[in-house]
Each structure stands twice: as C-alpha cells, then as structure tokens.
Amino acid sequence: MRLHRLDITAFGPFGGSQSVDFDDLSAAGLFLLHGPTGAGKTSVLDAVCYALYGSVPGARQSGQGLTLRSDHAAAGTRTQVTLELTVAGRRLEITRQPPWERPKKRGSGTTLDKAQSWLREYDATAGAWKDLSRSHQEIGEEITQLLGMSREQFCQVVLLPQGDFARFLRADAEARGRLLGRLFDTHRFAEVEKRLAERRRTIEARVREGDAALLADAHRMQQAAGEAMELPELAPGEPGLAEEVLAAAAVARSTAREQLTIAHRGRAAADAAHAAAERALADVREVARLQRRFAEARERAQRLQERADAHREAQTRMERSRKAEAVAPALELRDAAETEHRRAADAAAHARALLPEGHADAGASGLATAARRAAEELGGLESARRAEQRLAQLVAERADLDRQERADEEILAESEGWLAGWDATRADLQTRIEAAQEAATRAEQLAVRREPAQKRLSAARLRDRLAGDTEDAQRKVLASEEQALQAKKHWLDLKEQRLDGIAAELAAHLNDGEPCAVCGATEHPAPARKDAGHVDREAEEQALAAYQRAEERHAKDERRLGVVREALAAATAEAGDTPTGRLADEADELERLHAQARRDASGLHAAHEELRRAEQEHERRTADRQQAALSTATRTARRDTLERERAALEEDLAQARGTRASVAARAAELERQVSRLTDAADTARAAEESAERLKAADGRLAEAAFRAGFDNPQAAAAALLDDAAHRELQRRLDAWQTEEAAVRAVLAEADTAAAAEQPPADLAAAERTAADAAARLRAAASAWDAAARRCTELDGLSARAETGVRRLAPLREEHDRVARMASLTAGTSADNERKMRLESYVLAARLEQVAAAATVRLQRMSSGRYTLVHFADRAGRGRSGLGLHVVDAWTGRERDTATLSGGETFFASLALALGLADVVTDEAGGVRLDTLFIDEGFGSLDDQTLDEVLDVLDSLRERDRSVGIVSHVADLRRRIHAQLEIVKGRSGSVVRQRGQ
Fold first, then answer.
1. Are the C-beta atoms of residues 83 and 3 closer than 8 Å to each other?
2. Nearest to 523 by CA among 531, 532, 534, 511
3. For the chain, what is the domain count?
C-alpha cells in the first residue's frame, strides 16, 4: 500500500482545505511531520485512517461524527477527507464526509446532513476515474479485503502510535496476549478451546444424566425387590456403576421368581378350598329358600280366607255397576241438557237487566224489532260524526297557528336583540386576533435569541468548572514533578553508590585459579568487600523503575493540564468574560418572555374560530328574522279561512247532537242500545230452545232406567261407578284371583313340601365357612399378584437398564476422547508439558516470529548490544505465558525489558513495532506496506543512537518503503530534509510541505 495524496477540509484543527503530496515526501524515503503541540500532526494520521475505515484510531474514536468537524471552519464549509492510494496494484480514491449540521437554506437554524462516502478507481486505459460505490458498507468491505487488515491492525502496523509499543514491550503476558490476539486474529483458537470445553460439559452432563437415570431405575428396582437387592455405593459418572447395577438387578430378579413359584402353589390350594365351601353354601341356601317359600305360602292362604266376605261384596258391586252402564248415556244427555238450560236462562236474565224500562218483559221477537229501529237511527248520524271530526281538526290547526305566532315573536325579539350588539362583538374579536398575532411574532423573535444565550450559558458553566479543574491539574503537575525529581535524585544516588561499590560485586565472582574478568589475573590477594551500605543491581533497578513511573505520572499530568487548558480557552472564547450568573439571568428572562409570548399567542386559533362562529351566528339570526316576518303574513290569511268553516260546521252539529254534548256521545248511546237489544233477543231465544231439549231428555232417562232393572233413574245413577272406582274394584278382584292361584301352586310343589319336613337350615354357619375360604383365597391371590408384578417390574427395569448401559457405552468413549482434547487445549492435561492453552501456544509462535524480525533491527540500533527473545515463563496456576526478554551482549545475561532506559525502550519498541509490521503484513497475505508512520519518541535518544535509529529507518527504503516520522525533536529537522510542517494559528492550522 502506497499513499499518494491527502486532501483535508474542515477536519480537526484544519479550518480550510489543505493538501499533502505523499509522492513528493516519499521520494527521499524518510520525511518528517513536525509542528507545535496541538497543531494537528496526529490529525493528519487520523485523516488517513478515517478515509480508509470511516473512523479514527484508538482512544480518539470518541471524536466521531459531528466532533470531527473543525471549530475553525466556516458555517457553509463541509468536512471532507479525500485519500488517493495504490493497493494491490489498483489506484483508488476514497472520499468521506462525516455528518454535519449545516445552516438551513431557508429560514434560521440548522439541519443535519447524513454522512457520505465515495470510492473511485483510476482506469489507465481510459485515462479517467470511474465510480465504484457510494455505500459505506461496500467501501469498508472492499478496503478491508484489499489491505487484508482491520482498522486495529492498520493502526498498529502502519500508524505506529505514541507509547503503544513501549507499553507492549513492558506489558505482562495477559495484556501482550490481548494485543497479539487482535492483530493475528487468534480468537478462532480460543473458540476451539471454548467449543471443546462446552462439548466436554455437554457430553459429561449427558453421561451424568444417563447414570442418574440408571441409578433411578436401580432405586425403583430396590423398591420393587425390597430387601432382596442392595444398591451400589457409587455416584453418577464413577466407573463400574453400570456393572454393579446390572449384577444387583440379576440377583433381585432370581429371588422374585422363586417367590412367584411359592405364591402360585398357595393360590392353587386356597382356590380348591374356596370352591368346596361355595358348593356347600349353595346347598344350604337352597334348602333355606324352599323352607321360607312353604311358610310364606301358608301365611298367604290364611290371609285370603280372612278376606273372603269382602271379596263376595265386591263382586256384587261390580255386577250392579255393569247394569248401570246401560243407563249412563241417558244420564249424561239429561245432565248436559239441564246445564245448557240453566246457562241460557242466566244469560237471558242478565241481558234483560241491562235494557231500559219498557223492554224488560218483551219476548224474543219484540226485542229483535226494537234493535232494528235503533240501528236505523244510528246510521243517520254518520255524516254528523264526520263533521264533528273536521271541527276538531279546525280547532287544533287554529291552536297550532297561535303557537307558531308566539314562537316567531320570540325568535324575532331574540334576533333583534342579538343583532343590536353585533358590531361591538366583531370589533372585540378582531382586537383579540391582532393581539395574538403580535404575540406570535414576538415569540419567534425571542426563539431566535434563546439558543445563542443557552450556548453562552453552557460555555460559561463549562468555563467555571474547567477553571477549577485547571487549578487541580496544575497542583497535580507540580506534585508529580516534585516526586519525579525526588525519584530521579534517589536513583542517581543509588547508581553512584553502586558504581562506587562495583568492585565488591566483581570480587564476589572471583575464584582462586580462575582469571579475573577485568585484569585476567588468576591470583586474587585482596578482593574488595561489600560494606554495610552496599547497593546492589536490584536496588538500582527498582529505583530506576520508580523514577520511570514518576516520570510517566508527571507526563500524564502535563498532558491532562494541556487538555484542560485548551478546553478552558475554547469555553472562554465562546462565553467571554461575562459572569455566569448574569448569563443565567439573561437566559431565564428570555425563557420567561418567550413563554409569556407563546401563552399570549396560543389564543390566536381560538379567536379565529370564535369570530368564524360569530359570523355564522349573524347570518343565521338575520335569516330567522326574515323568515318570522314572512310566516306572520301567511298565518293571518289562513286564520280567516278556518274561522268561516268553523261557524258553518257548528250550526249543522247543533241539530245532530240533540240533548247530548256531542254527536259522538249520541252515537255511542245508540250503539249501546242496539247491542243490548240484540243480546237480549238472542239469549231469550236460546233459553226457550234449551227448555224444550231438557224436557225431551227427562223422558228418555226414565225409559232407560226401567229397561235396566232399576226402580227409578236415581237408583241407576247411584249404582254407576266412575272410571277410577271401576278400575280400583276390578284390580282388587283380579288380585284376589291371582293370589289364590299362586298360593295353590306353591303348596302343590313336591320339593317345597319335602324341604318343609326337614330340620331348619343353618345358613349363618355355612356363610362363615365360605367367607373364611374366600379370605384365604384373596390373600393367596394378592401374594401371587404382588410377586407377578414384582417380576414384571424387575424384568422391565432390568431391560431398560441394560438398554441404557448399551446406549451410554459409546457416549462414555466420546466423553473420554473429548475430555482429553479439552484438557490438552486448555493446558490442564499432563500431556501438555508447558501448561499452555492453544491460543497462547499460537500467540507464542507469533511472538517468536516478531522477536526474530525485531532483533534484526534492534541489533543495528543498539550497535549489536541487545537481542529480543521470547520465553515461556510460568505464571498464575502453573501455565506458560507470553514472556519477552532482552539479552544484553555486554553482560551476557537475559533480563526484563522493563530494565531498559528511556532511549533504549524507545528504539527497542520501534524495532518491535517494525518487526510486528513485517509479520502482520506477511500474515495478511503479503500486502506490501510502502508507507509507514512513527509517532514521537525520538527525544529520548542521544545523538549516536539517533543516528543508528535513522540508519535503520533509512534502510527500509531497501524494501521500497517510505517512513514518516512525527516528532518535536529539533535536530531531526536538520537531519531529515523532506518535511511536512503543521503551523497552528487562531483561525486554524495550515500545512507547509518541503521536498528533498
């Protein structure tokens, strides 16, 4: 990958448009990015990362989206980053625009535009650019696939960040493993460990479930077998459980079968005894039944003899009833005729009682004649009734006209009163509308002033808070600076003391006959001795580490102070010197006025609606007044017509009513008279006809009674029985005959008579004998059923246990195999001698490659003194880690990287970063990285080491690479001629480029 050109607009500290020509800078192999603190050196690298991946590196990811935009940019200038590069033989151009709030084209305020991206490729054949995509996702996938690296990998191997590799060099195995895991994507090996562990747990759970089911079956077999089975004292998962369960089940099944045989023999004996007892009981029951039957027959014969007289009387009564049945039809006819005559006579008397005087004694024909005369008079009143109905209609219509007149007068008066106040009402509503419109205008003006006031207030509050933070940060800087100076003084004192006593350390390794490492002599007559205050190497290294930690804390506090000061300056620039209280009061006053204006303007719609309703009411009132005047004229003409027709009808009806109040009353009277006369005539005629029929019925009844043998009809009626009495009497006669026949039949039976001559049967003793035999049979059958169920249940449970054992066998084998693999990959197996997890083993191999690649450059930077080596130390529960040591050729000893000085740490970290970049590049598929950036750290090197480091970086050109160095070191400006200077100012930073 080679960068060609970078264009930045309104990004980070760059308020305007700036361009960086990497082709010109890369021509010399090394180029320098320099400028004052906060000018924007790192922002250039952020822009490269943002163009490629749509986000900025590491901790600066919080600055995404709207905060990427420069505070120095003009309101109408959009933030944009364009990068032109060559990767995998393709020349591409990537343009990205983050989301931004731009001013609205119409009206005040801002609107949010979405983020946009473009990807173009240069077509050498056509000599022009062609569009590839405008999708964020497609562009991200295309760039990641071409580079073969994620954003985290790119930031580690291309944009070598400040301090990251120094921390990586000194980190513990866990932190170093996390970084290597991200770069080399070894999480799949961790997933293998996880999957194997999960598989082991799953299979182990299934084995335990199978063993638990087997033990549950064993418990059920023990419950079925009772004391004949002993359970194995093993838990689920322990070996030998299945064999012991099956052996115990076999013993229980054999014992159960023996018990079943014994129970079967007992049941057969009890069954035979029970059958004999049942047969004896049946014989006794039969004798007892026949004896009871004979005794009951003798008692029934005695009761029949006692009721013989009543039986003969009933027979006589039945014979007289049969004779009276011939007279029954005549009796019924006579009773019906008498009832009809009585009813007709009562009706006639009632009808005559309702007639007027003069008609009560008339016959049926006279009454009919009077009814016809009254009906004729009623027919003559029909026309008069219609006239009377019309008169009622006229009166009702006249009353309706009067009601309408009164209603129109009320409507007219109400309309006149409302219309008199219309002008004043309309003027008042117009005034309310104008006031609400003015309030709405005032609310819009105040709304424009609210947002700037709130922003200034927020900035002032932030300014006040940051002022306190600045003081705290200054105190922390002074305190950490003092601690760093004290730690440095302590370290230098210990170092000086150690140098003074270094002879004693060398003398401690002298042995007689062996040459001295300093002078080569084999005799050591007076070796130096350690005094009481001797300082050894460990004490010096601890003091150095304490000093380095203090320096780091001081640098961190200074960076924190710078960040707080920059934030305070930005807040002060926006809020000014106005006190926060005054700004708060102004903002509150604006809020109060705006709220009041909104409340005043809220009545605008209601006032419009009320005016519209008032205008509609005005139109309705005017129309009502006109309609009332028209209705008054129409009613006057109609009232005169009705009055004339009423007078003519009154004259005609006076004659038709007579003495009655109305024609209807007279007609009702005649209708009642016609009805009563007609009813009286009909009832009188019916009474006469019923009297004739009653006389004829009396003659027929007397003749029928004589023929039947009765002295008179009353005697025949007394002998006659109703249906219920006849059925009851016949039932008694039939029951007597049936009982007499049954008793004779029982007494004539030979078996019954023979049983009666035998002694009384002892049924209770026979039943007790049979009950005892039945109880013994039930007990034997229960014992046999229990033994059979026990055998069946034990057979089923044993078969299920055998099936479970066969099913668990391959699962146990799989569990053993998976458990061995899981333990091996997790580093807990005895076969894993180094106790290394699979992912740690892979990372260790990668770290060895990185250490080997870094050593090539580290030896040149350190003049052959230092070599980086990987070692698998053991830490934490006996597992190997990812150790990294440095071998010092001057002493021949291997030591921790934390013992390196500041400058040594920098070039060791740089060598490590370059080696890691080479390994990651090879891992990513061999993608060439022709452009690298190194961010800071050169200030800790002396002149000689700086020359060696620059020589190593310059040697990267052998692989056709260009390296950009980001640094404040002034000496680098003299050594490196290709430079990109970032100059900051009050209106934003600008770029100045100088080539070879």
1. yes
2. 511
3. 3
